[in-house]
Amino acid sequence: MGNKRPVSFERDVKWVQDVMMNDSQTTIYFAVTEQGKDDIVGYTSISEIDYRNGTCFWSGIKLDTRIAGKGWGTEVGLKILKFVFEELRMERCKGECLEEHEAGKRLMLKIGFQVDGLMRSAVYKNGKQHNQYIMSVIKSDYLHIKNERSL
Questions:
Q1: Where's the N-acetyltransferase domain (predicted)?
Q2: Residue 61 near residue 32 (C-beta atoms within 8 A)
């Protein structure tokens, strides 16, 4: 994706404003908030939305460290799947996580993703190449998850 760019508060604010004002047909961002409160405690997104083929990419979730490990990821992930399959009417949702990111992989498996494969040397991060799992949930998987979890 090119060279590193310096990050600043101003750059982050502009990025958030651009996301909020962009009416993209292929990407949707969601703020994570506690029910009944306005404070944003995380975010998630769906991208690469392809209505013709019925596919999309869930980027995972970024949560405030104070609430991580308390079930928020599972709840948000299940709501994302519900949105993907019931509102967007997708056939397949893919996700990816680094091989060594056990928490990410565990969350995805917990909500119903299945490992499709391991891409070798797929991501350059922190000065070295990393393997990355590619995972997915298809509509028939979701229907089972929905029934099992009473979504």
A1: 13-114
A2: yes
